[in-house]
Amino acid sequence: MNDVKTPRNAARGTWALPLVALAPLAAIGILTERTSTTWNVISWVLWALSVVLVAVEWAAVLRHRTRRPAQWGMCVLVHAVLAWQLIALMRQ
Question: Would the pTM of this model clear 0.90, i.e. be above it?
C-alpha cells in the first residue's frame, strides 16, 4: 500500500510566523522609547525568536524547494523587517 503524503510545501502561511513575532517588536518601538531595560530585553528576545523562526522556515524552503513568486516576496519582506528591527535595536 502506498502511503502518499504531501510534503509541507511552503504554503500561504510560510514566513508569516516570523512576521507575527516581529509585530509586537515593531509596536514596542513605535509606542515606547525603549529606554528601559525591560523593554530592551523583551525586544531582543522577540527579535531572537523571529530569527529562529526564519531559520526554521528556511529549512522548510530548502527541503521542499519553494518556487512561487508570492512566497519569495514574503521572504524578502520578512528579511527586510528583520534587518530594520535589528538596526533599530542596535541604535538603542
Answer: no
